[in-house]
Amino acid sequence: MAIVPFPFNPDAAIINSPFYWPKESAFQTPQGPLVFGAGLVVDYDTGVVSVDPVPPASLGTVTSVTAGPGLYTTPGAGITVTGQVGLSTVLSVTPGTYTYAAFSVDAYGRITAANSGLSPVQAVTGLYPILVTGAAPSVTIAIDAASTTNSGAVQLVDNLSTPSNTLALTGKQGYLLQQQIDAIVATSAIQFLAGTINATTGLVVTATAAGNTAGIIAGSALPAASSTNAGAIRIVTTAGTYTPPGGTATALVPGDQLLSTGTAWVPVLTGFRAPYATTTTAGIVRYATVPETQALADNTIAVTPFGLSGMVASTSQRGFVELADAAETQLLADTTRAVTPAGLGTLQATTSTRGLVQLNDTLTSTSTTEAPTARALKQAFDESIHNDIIQANGDLIVGLAPSDPQILPKGSDGQVLTVDNTQPLGVKWKTPVFPQSTPIGAMCWFTSNDGTKLPVGWLVADGSSYSDSPADDYNDLFLVIGTTFTPPTDPPGTFRVPDLRGQFIRGWNDAGGNPGTLDPGRAFGTCQIDAYEQHSHAITDPGHIHSITDPGHFHSITDPGHSHTVTDPGHTHKWGVPNSEVVGDTPGFYDGNNKVGNKPAETASCTTGVSIASATTGLTQTNVCTTGITQTLVCTTAISVNNSPVAAPSPNETRPVNFSLLPIIKYKEP
What we know:
Elements lengths: L24 E5 L2 E5 L3 E4 L4 E4 L19 E4 L9 E4 L14 E4 L5 E5 L14 E6 L2 E6 L11 E3 L9 E3 L1 H16 L5 E7 L5 E4 L1 H5 L18 E7 L1 E3 L7 E3 L4 E4 L4 E4 L17 E2 L2 H6 L5 E2 L2 H5 L12 E2 L2 H6 L5 E2 L2 H5 L12 E3 L9 E3 L1 H10 L12 E6 L2 E5 L7 E4 L7 E4 L12 E4 L11 E3 L4 E3 L7 H7 L12 E3 L74 E5 L4 E2 L7 E2 L11 E5 L55 E5 L4
Parallel strand pairs: 11-12, 13-15, 20-21, 22-23, 24-25
Antiparallel strand pairs: 1-2, 3-4, 5-6, 7-8, 9-10, 13-14, 15-18, 16-17, 18-19, 26-27, 28-29, 30-38, 31-38, 32-33, 34-37, 35-36
């Protein structure tokens, strides 16, 4: 049969479900439409459904279709290429029409059973005590309550103390009541008062003479029932739950009796059992303690005046409260008193005191005793610059126009804020041109010895070694100074800054390529040791004398007689006086006549003073005579020149007056 495609409605809303797929066609069945989505091919002329050989890429590839509960396929093993899918027949359901039907539906929504029901009740009536209220189809059926004049439903009560004429005793209470009656009837001829008993302790309080005869002793427990005490009656004086010998536990009150039948002690509930009072029923009531009164929770006990004395109101307890006067109100310290309207009137707020305050709805008030209204605060808030306008670190608030604040984002490192009327905000970030007065490699003296306070981009000139890698911050300095100050023993890839610790700086003689006259031939970047220039000191000597005294001498010659022919052409005696040396800056000699230089040797003529008689001995004798005196004179002026201080300086060096500062060198731009 043919299949009618679903009509497309472009105005229909798309279902918000991850499992939704647009409906394309449906096969109408008695149970509803069988919807086919994408991935299946429907032949609308024949009604055949088959797997789409080219399904949408989003669906993947269907390789087989197997029928689930409530469906069947043709072929029955499943569809692998083409086939049909249909609804399975539910064999337990007979097609037809049902009246007041009852249906069973399985988890898949299939009707698995259908049955006709009974005709509904149209009207209900009841005979007393059955009560019927309401009308079809909603009817309520109830039983009327019993009373002393009418039969009906009755509530049971399981005690013998409830004074009600609308309640009925339980079978248990009827049994107990009958036991009491039977005991009274059986012992009516022999009953006697035996004394009293405490139902809490179970001990006999008092015993009559007849009781003593029956073995009932005051202060002792009640003896077992026997023929000796048959007919004995014990009256309860103190309430409690008591179990008589051979009996069961029973709640007793004063006035109740214990009657011995000779075989058992039977409780006879003759005491007064008034009901406890409630908010709707009169009865006995217990007085409440102070804590119970403060709890304000129990509605079955009564409050006494003493209990009310503990009902003092506080921040954690409801109760009676004392009214505060004006002074106590202004202190704002008491937590146990209540404030009156008059007291509130004295609470006027100031800048130093809490209290009531008058509102002010303007933004121009200068009052210190009034508070702004919410409207005024909102206006002030709306007209203020809000902190949420700041969106990032470094944002600046700049006015674009009156009441129109705008944000200027922060600039880059090193930029400065400058005025620029061509910009929308009138200002802009600008990268300044750094002055060349402090180029890389420049040096100066820093007035702090704290290395952490050095300006950015500067190092201490202490001869330290740094990496010359282009990836490091010190490469710019290396490109300027190179290895000028680096010892050849340092490892490659490093360089040193100059070591100016304890040094004075001197201008390089060859600076500018035009050598000066001072410090000629000096190499750049070298260290020069200390020196002391040659100079002279003038010394005036008033003169002095070198005296040589010769006591005289003679030469003795004994000639036994002979003739000497002496030819003395003349001779000289030379003596030299070494020049005196004066300590000073210029080495030389001093001769006593203010002459400086070498002293030549002096020559003096000498004669022997010997007369030789002319005789001829036939001998020729040549005598060389000397004085036998060799005199070396060392003369000094006794003058010492010493320019050294009395005590050596520390360190012992020649230096001018100076001031110690920290030498630093620039290695990068900040």
